[in-house]
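Crash report, auto-generated. Payload:
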Amino acid sequence: MMKAKLNIIATLLVLFSTTAFALEHPDDHSHDHGEGQTMDLKTEIKQTIKHHLKDAHYFELYHGLAMPLPVIIWDNGIHLFMSSSFDHGHTLANSKGNYYNLDHGKIYKTDSEGHVLDNQSIIDFSITKNVLVIILMCAFLLISFSKLARSYKKGPIPTGFGRILEPLVLFVRDDIAIPNIGEKHYKKYMSYLLTVFFFIWFLNLSGMMPLGINVTGSIVVTFSLALITYFITQFTANKNYWGHIFWMPGVPVPMKIILLPIELLGTIIKPFSLMIRLYANITAGHVVLMSLIGLIYAAQHWLANGAFFGLTLFLGVIELLVAFLQAYIFTMLTALYFGSAVEEHDDH
Amino acid sequence: MEELFKDFSIGLFVWQTVLFITLIFLLKKYAWGPILSSIEDREQGIKDALDSAQSAREEMQALSADNQKVLQEAKVERDTILKEAREMKESIINDARSAASVEADKVIESAREQIQNEKMAAITDLKNQVASLSIDIAEKVLKSELSDQQKQKDFVAAALKDADLN
Amino acid sequence: MDAETFAMIGKGLIVIGAGLGIGKIGGSAMDAIARQPEATAKIQTAMIIAAALIEGIGFAALFA
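Recovered output after restart:
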């Protein structure tokens, strides 16, 4: 019953993401890109995909309906105003006597004439589209899981949405944490593993929704996640872990010296591959899906249109699987690294 | 790769890191902690229930085994008692039988002896009576035979004739 | 040919290598599952981890 419901929801999501991307399909994004009005369809599709992959200072539900978001700039003091002041880059925003310009999603400090001041660097702490989605996702996770936690006070079996979430929590604990970290140490990592799993998975899924969200396809977000994994691994590691990095037991001394830089590099490569993997998978998925949707428009024959529609639908379903798989792999490898950090080598 | 680093947004990085770490701690306090402990409690409860059911079953089995054992012992005891009783009965019967036969033999023996004695007495008595009777008869015969002179002289003559003097 | 062309060729080679590697892992996992269907879950986990590690190298090559 629940499964059938989920299937229907998933199918609907794929269908609507197709139509929504279609709505997002740009008729005249020229003002964003500052190019001529005469763009052929191919360039348009390219621009749309590029635009979609980037973070934005607007939450664009579809073309023509864009929600302005707050801009926060650190420029010897905080400057706070709404991004509607830019009017999509058409005008300069004036805040406390300073002028800013929005060009290709980036904010530059300018003089009153609109000339970019190169020597003046500013830091952009704006609530961009991605930050907004992250905030909403945090709220969603907090509400749904604290609700699940409260439902245990009423009885041993959760009800409603919690009935879907509980098996997933058990899945993370029994299939990811315990086999990779071990019965003895897994408890202290559970909070991070569960948070990172649901955070990535739900953000991946939200990327499949027809809202043009692409948070986990942003290298900044995956970098932050991988960095936290890296720090937790290093700070909870026992002396065995460091022993294996700095002075590998059981190999001859020259080998130990050769292995030292390799092992040290390995500690950085591991989270780096986590970062790249998630970023690349999600980005690639979005690019492929949007290209196929673009092909539906580009194709001249109705038969080709239908074929590309079917292909998009198929790949959409695959992407739903990838959304889960990438969250799973990220959590799984994170757990594996934690496991290697607390592993106790009784055999040496 | 260069493009990625050029587009690297410090603002987004700071927001993501701060929000995510806050999320971890909030979820730990309000969600993961209670959820995991509830699940563990539930699992422990299920495990305890199963264990107690198992131990109850084992107890039942032990109890029935005990019953079986008691029954078996009772049976064995009954059998031994019966056997003993039977043996006692037989030994009593045997004893009685042997005692009776001894007694009977003794009685028979004494009876026989008495009979013998009586017989001997009777025989003796008879002999005496026969002897006296014979003497009486002989006396009477002699008296009747030798009542006149002639007959006495004949008898002495016959007797002298028989007693051949050679 | 300029450096970028060579880089592209290199990326192509790495993708071929990664593809072959992941294919080998997948094939071996299938064999293993066919041989021991009861160990499917464990084999799948190991397969995904191994494939993910190769994939990481592939992506590093593509994006570097």
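Post-recovery validation: The mean pLDDT of chain B is 88.
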